[in-house]
Amino acid sequence: MSKFLIDPSNFLPAQLKWWTLPNFMKLLVGGYGSGKTYIGALRAIYLSERNRGIPGMYVSPTYKLAKKTIIPTLKEILNAANISYRFNASDHEFYIHNWDGIIWIGSGDDPDSLRGPNLAWAGIDEPFIQKLEVLEQMLARVRVLGATDELFLTGTPEELNWGYDVAMNPDDKYDVDYVYASTLDNPYTSQRFKDSLLSAYTKEQISAYIEGKFVNLTKGMVCKGFDRTKHVVERADTDKMIKELPIYSGDDFNVDYMSKIFFFDIGGHIHYFDEIRLENSNTFEMAALARQKYPTSEVCYPDSTGGYRKSSSVKSDHQILIDYGFQVLCRSTNPPVKDRINAYQRLLNDGRISMDPKCKHFIADNERMVWKNGKIDESDPNRKHMFDAGTYPIEYRYPIIRSIASSRAR
Predict the structure, then answer these.
(1) Residue 270 in 3-state DSSP?
(2) What would the CATH number be for the domain defined by 8-218?
(3) Does domain 231-409 have CATH number 3.30.470.20?
């Protein structure tokens, strides 16, 4: 049979960028009507042709939703290309005669139902409203030796769940990359539809449901002014600045997680360029690693309580930093958390904050931290530590209202 030919020149820019990602896991994060369902269905057909006779699975949140999205889109593409196929509704299976292709439709509402034979590839539609177990099942099943193996995901960021964690990949756990797709960039979607969305949604909803950006819509965000497209910046002159500018850092002391973030102060603009996070560690290890990584770094702004409590059981955290050649600057007591957040938020809104993509945990804190009963929600143990490390220096250097307590250098 003839090979299934795809013309990438017909793709939207975001679709093309996603299609050509070299990673095992490809994530397309898009607004409503941004073309993510179409390109996901096309990818499923493409992978079925590349893996003739070996099944792949495309998982929808439910079979009911699949009947409205994945299934009709697959049929539309196959019919338009005059490809002979059979769809078995009871088994939720597409069989493509032209190349012995097999596409199973799975339902994520019962992850245990996804167990079964090995797969050449898998796709997950709308991961942001599915369970983590769906991802785990697909990762366990895509394992056919010699196959063109891949796991792709397409969805709108309804909430910042595990799909967000996979995309941000702060611990480099996955071979993954992601692409944003905006509803407004799709010329095949009517202007009336676009206008109706723009008029109906709040600013935050527009960011999520139209622009396809990661936004926490379930609770009040702590860093309301943060915008990944504006504040995450990879500077070409970072190596030059490391050699020529003072390197500052902020520290938060915890056994899990010890957190340190490095930054430059460029005429009042704070640029965070690297971070260190250690699990089940101590200040000795953190200080030694920081000194090895950036030998010229001297001034650090740690948690004030580090002068008294000990994560090491031998010396205070501040004294350990001093012993490793750091100048410790902090207040006698930590200022109220909201004072520190307000100081940071002011610089954020004024365009005086940027951060390198390497600062993954700091970026995640900016995007995911939310208020709960007037305080930062600390239910997620992964969150907040790097943000604390990064904002102690801001409050010390650029406070909105200086604390009455005297500052000290140790």
Answers:
(1) strand
(2) 3.40.50.300
(3) no
